[in-house]
Amino acid sequence: MASEVVVPVLGFSNEKGKIVKWLKSEGAFVKKGEPIFELETDKVVTEVESPATGLLKKILIPEGTEVPVLTVVAIITEKGEELPEKYRTGRPEGEKPVPRTLPPTSPRSSRESYDLAILGAGPGGCTAAMRAAQMGARVLLIEKGNLGGTCLNRGCIPTKSFLSDIKSLRKVRDSDLFTGGRKVSIDLIKMASRKNRVVEAMRRGTSSLLRNQGVDPVKGFGRLLGGKRLEVSSNGRTKVFQAKNLILATGSRPASISGIAIDGKMVLSSDEALDLKQRIPKNLLIIGGGMIGVEFATIFRGLGAKVTILEMLPQIISNEDEEVVKGLGLLLEKQGIEILTGARVLRASVKKNSVEVTVDRGGKKEKFSGEKVLMAVGRAPNIDGLQLDRIGVEMEEGFIKVNSKMETNVEGVYAIGDVIGKMMLAHAASAEGITAVENIMGKVREMDYQKIPRCLYTFPEAASVGLNESEAKQKGYHIRVGRFLYSNSGKAWAMGEPEGFVKIVAEKELGQILGVHILGEQATEVIGECLLAMNLEASIEDLGEVVKGHPTLSETITEAALDWQKKGMRTSAQ
Amino acid sequence: MHLTKDRAMSKSNVPDGSEVLRAVPLVRWVAKKERIDLSLVKGTGPEGVILPKDLERFRTTQSAMGTVVPTEKRSASSLARKLATKKGISLEKMSGTGNRGRIMMADVARAVEKGAIFLDGQGMFGQTLPMTQMRKAIAKRMSLSVFTAPHIYFFTDVEMDALNRRREEILPDFERKFRIRISINDFFVKAVALTLGEFPILNSRLQGEEIYIMPEINVGLAVALEEGLIVPAILRADRLSLAEISQIRTDLVDRARTRKLKWEEIERGTFTISSLAQFDITFFTAILNPPQSGILSIGKETDHLALREGKVVTKKIARFGLSVDHRVIDGVLAAKFLESLKHRLENPSLGSL
Amino acid sequence: MRELTYVQAINEALKQNLERDERVFLMGEDIGKYGGIYQVTAGLLDKFGPQRVIDTPISESGFVGAAIGAAMTGMRPVVEVMFIDFTTCAMDMIVNQMAKIHYMFGGKGKVPLVLRANLGAGRGTGAQHSQSFHAFFLHIPGLFVVVPSTPHEAKGLLNTAILNENPVLFLEHKKLLPLTGNVPEEYYTIPFGKADFKRMGGDMTIVATHAMVHRSLNVAEMFAKEGIEIEILDPRTLKPLDKESIIESVKKTGRLIVADEGPVTCGVASEISAMIAEEAIEYLRAPILRVGSPDAPVPTSPLLEKAYIPDEDDLIQAVNKMKAFL
Amino acid sequence: MDLSRDQKLGLYKKMIEIRLFEEKIQDLYARGSIPGSVHLYIGQEAIAAGVCAHLRKEDYITSTHRGHGHLIAKGADLKYMMAELFGRKTGYCKGKGGSMHIADFDLGILGSNGIAGGGIPIAVGAGLSSKMRGTDQVTICFFGDGASNNGTFHEGLNFASVHRLPVVFICENNLYGISVSQKQHQAIKDISIRSVAYNMPGITIDGNDVLAVYQTSGEAIQRARAGEGPTLVEYKTYRWRGHYEGDPNQGRRYRTLEEIQMWMKKCPIKRFEAKLAKEKVLNKKKVMDIWKEVEKKIEEAVAFANQSPFPDPGDIFEDVYVS
């Protein structure tokens, strides 16, 4: 029987050795115990004896090569014996050295115990995880799907990718600068794949950020077991973890109107609507004129669909400043988006190639027909299967109830993001995450929603923070409003985007900025300085003193602040 | 020499010059659990290490006062400055909760609520000042006292020489051992507490038709603040050593000045000492602090000539006044109390002072 | 009850064991006619003969090793090493052989052997006859270490040690040898790993061993007059150690002083301090203090020796430090 | 002492068993099946076989770091030895001992010992014990030339001699204490002369002649059994391998190839084989049969070891103390 010659274990611990010299050549007859090659290790140079008597049939490792201990370096065969098959072509491919028969030294099986376990790796969960890890906590992050949550995978990021492409298309198509511009169309497949690349890159980035911060991500569906124990199941296997604190950040999913089921084919949710491999419907009914509805209206209108928004309330994007809403409504309608307010949807019947939606409008029943229906009436919290009852988490209107420190009624259990149903925005979730973590780590921090901006990605964008005019009045502030129109901004004109305005609501006595509302090109970026001003408690006078680069869109803020002080120079009263 | 070198006794400064926070493990554990910022707690252990009792004291105070972060730099937000100016208060002694101790609007609002620190004299004349919460409380209480409890007054002169000597004697020792500067008031507190032990009736209150002798002797010490008088009380002063009284008194007065007293510390007094010894007031009467039945007023020490064994000598004399609620206490008893107190103070080496 | 000295109590235990169990025999330097350096084995040669009370050559490795061999093959030797200092001459036998045989042979065989030795300073015997390095042996898994502080415990614990199937280091303290106390005449045992509360108190705990127990008791009485109540806990066996009782006491008082005559560095006191730091730190109201010998050899001159020995003065100093945290 | 044919074959077979076992270990160690370090007995087989041939089950031996031969000769089961060397739970010591720490108290094997000279006082103690218990058990104490310089050697011989204990001290002088030659580590040629100092008989014999070993040890053992006290017997021999497996070039840093080859020519097995062939006790076929039989036994032992489980990490605390 053929015998393998290996690089031997040489007492204590040598891990590799170099073959200095073959003392016998291939084909030579060797006797058991006869030195056949010289080996050099970090400690010694020694001759290695033949383990058997026979022909040195094949030398597998040439002189001068360093190989790990136990690597097969030659084969000795008995007289007349053929070289075994697997050694016929040099060193077998992928063949690893024969593993030592000693058991692997496995780390002591530690109890899986963490300072903090976070259920859900959306923007809230990821941010919380990283901050907690930065602060020295051992963090477990549990996610059943992809990292990044709704925002990255089915929300903010993919829609921004589309909107950016559609904006370029609009620019070209609606301009008479480019010859043939009207004939330009967009390649839906490429647009979708660009979106996928963006999302993929962000996912990878998130994953490496988490790793760099030392967060342990685990894939699977998390369930509460009572106490601070969690069970995570993935592919039928479950594992139990223990954590001192919990953050529930499981997010939300699209909701529907009772009686109308989202089938994903005719009645879509935002999830399916993002899957643009489907043909763009000729006409689309969007039920719900909130942020999601309006954004999708912009996307689909931009892609050529006829879009009708059916909103139950008297205005779209309710709670926003009336002037912004009115202005946006006009601009959307100008783009050809039909907006029906006060329209309560009663039912939807799916026909062969269309859906018929029945609407109660001021007591009158009306019927609308669309090729597809997009349900955008809001989002419902992801709490199914979590077993919240195991620890007795208190709920409020279907969402998890928390206080301003993000604590639930159960000690050490926090909740953030869509699942608490407060602001349902990615950055709000992140801020909530940081609030929760800092409280967990022994600081005292409360969430202040007055300083969280709201961003709406339409053409043009809208952005706001704090109180709107009527809210401020209701709260009893003595206020004054400063305004500035985009049409008075050189930059806006130059960009060909002169539609929109800035509106600042500030209290008279101290000049405290209570709210800022912007409709216009890049509103979501322009609002940034106002956020800083409010955080630092700058007065509106401070805001008016800032010298801006010219021409910039952010000049509009300074101008609005000056207008508030009746010191406006480029303003004409509205 | 066989004791292990004690880290607790070693210098508490780290190389960069900042103070290291020192607390025993139990304190750290509780603080972590209850999320208490230990940098706010004053330690009374060796080298200022925070002991469980310090935390206990802080915890109760804190519940009354809310979190206040002391700050050095007077950085304030634009709106905070405006608000302070509008309310006519100074940012000087205010604590800020913003980043790096920046004073924010909320801090100013809180200061206003607690009783303002007025800008020095600025714009005060001819202005109507709103009554602070404290002023209102004092006003109400004093009127109540005068209108409900019939006061009678007793006076005596106390020779202070022996007591002063005694203080001089033990002063350096106390400074070395306890790092406290014992004050003459500490002797008064102790003497009063011990004398109250002899005459429990002066440590009582009227409850309806009954006189209730208070189970503990808690001696209140009136502290003058800009906006009024506040009387934190030293709990069970009769059982405390002079050093303890001194430590507690210092802490209470400090906190009274920085408005960090908790309500119970003010409420729990069973007898009050009001001393104006540091002012040029030789004699005054005090109004009872209800529901207490007695208050001692102490004036400034003055030089008096006296005959002793045929020779004229100078004596330091302080005039003591005792006001009592006549509904509870008779004249003779009050007189005996005052006499006993006088004896105790004039012969400090005899008794337990 | 009858009073015996610590020495007599041990002598009685040896006698009773020799009577009870024919496998028991004594071995050591000068234990026969001479009766042992401190007379612990006095009279036993006459009673049991040279077969069972064996005077050995001055040859610690040899006779400790022989005891191991005898124990492995069915006997129950009780070996006296004249001073703990001399165990160093037999360290291979104690550390590499005695302690490990049961374990390295996978539970085969056992070494039911008692090694007696005295430790402690205070008799002017200098650097090579006065050490208290019993902590060495705590570092060697496989050994039990017994440190009785009273005659009663000396007898009861020695009886237990001889019954035990493991190698036991039975360490006597020189200064305790003349100590008298009640000792029952009959044979009795005291379990290993059960600490004894020598005094109850709520303000601080002193875990003390051997002579430090008595020194601590004196100090506790002094402070009791000041109203400070000190709890004194004597572990009695350092291995096994009654962690539960120590933790229980620390939980109650929140303040711990550990007093052991060994040098403080890496000593018994250090081990107990570390154990408390790991398992009950959240109950501590003050830093843990260790009282022990200085990191110097034991000097001979009486004045130096007195300064060397951790005594009441050192304990008072420790309690005073601790007082600041009350 | 005349040996029967069977006794001679028995001696031969024992030596083969030891040789083949050690050669197997040599190969398995190089191939990584055995953890730690191993010290092989090859070349010294005649001593273990010759001495232990006299022993009863209840007699004791103490062995050394180079102890496989002694244990096999005293009757240890190859399966459990192999499993122990493999670090398996089924080994003699549940995998806790390994090559240098194997014991079977039921067979009177009081353990091999990782400390040179560590077993000597223990052997003396075993002798003391059998004397006290009044049995006629004999204790064989194996050690090497290196250990003969250790204090325990002198302390042990002294104690045994004072008490006339039934111990036979077998010094296997293989000429090297690890890498230091006897010439360098002691000023005497024959270690047996040290017996004079302890007033006991001492003798030096060729340890590669199994019959001479058998003869001399037999006398010493008889003396011991009869209560006449200890004996020191020195056997001159040679280890073929390095001090341990991995000792470069079989110890040629400190000894010459010529010296090794010279001693290999004096192979105790070959010598005995030739003698037995002459006496017609052995023929070629018989030799082949014995080798095959032993090889099979060893392969079974390897298979047993390979199939055995490793100890559980939780076993760390098991057997620290007798409970």
- Rg value of chain C: 19 Å
CATH class of the largest domain in chain C: Alpha Beta
- Give the name of the CATH superfamily of chain D: Thiamin diphosphate (ThDP)-binding fold, Pyr/PP domains
Would you tell me which CATH topology of the largest domain in chain C applies? Answer: Rossmann fold
Give the helix level of chain D as a range of percent.
Answer: 40-55%
CATH architectural type of chain D: 3-Layer(aba) Sandwich
Strand content of chain C: 15-25%
SSE order of chain C, as H and E? EHEHEHEHHEHEHEEEEHEEHEHEHH
Q: Give the domain tally of chain D.
A: 1
**What are the segments of chain C in which pLDDT stays under 50 over at least 5 consecutive residues?**
none
Q: What does this protein structure show overall?
A:
The complex is a heterotetramer of chains A (574), B (353), C (326) and D (323). Chain A has 574 residues and is α/β, with parallel strands linked by helices. Chain A is built from 14 helices and 32 strands. The termini of chain A are far apart. The model of chain A is unreliable at 91-111 (pLDDT under 50). Chain B is α+β, with helices and mostly antiparallel strands. Chain B folds into 3 domains: 7-65, E3-binding domain (Dihydrolipoamide Transferase); 72-129, Dihydrolipoamide Transferase, CATH 4.10.320; 137-346, Chloramphenicol acetyltransferase-like domain (Chloramphenicol Acetyltransferase, 2-Layer Sandwich), CATH 3.30.559.10. Chain B has 10 helices and 11 strands. The radius of gyration of chain B is 23 Å and the shape is globular. Chain D has 323 residues and is α/β, with parallel strands linked by helices. Chain D has one domain (5-308): Thiamin diphosphate (ThDP)-binding fold, Pyr/PP domains (Rossmann fold). Chain D has helices spanning 5-30, 45-52, 68-73, 78-85, 119-133, 151-162, 182-185, 210-225, 257-265, 268-278, 284-307; strands at residues 60-62, 139-144, 167-173, 176-177, 180-181, 202-206, 231-236. In chain D, the strands form 2 sheets. In chain D, strands 1-2-3-7-6 form a 5-stranded parallel sheet, with helices on both faces. Chain D has a two-stranded antiparallel ribbon with strand order 4-5. The interface between C and D is large, with 41 and 47 residues.
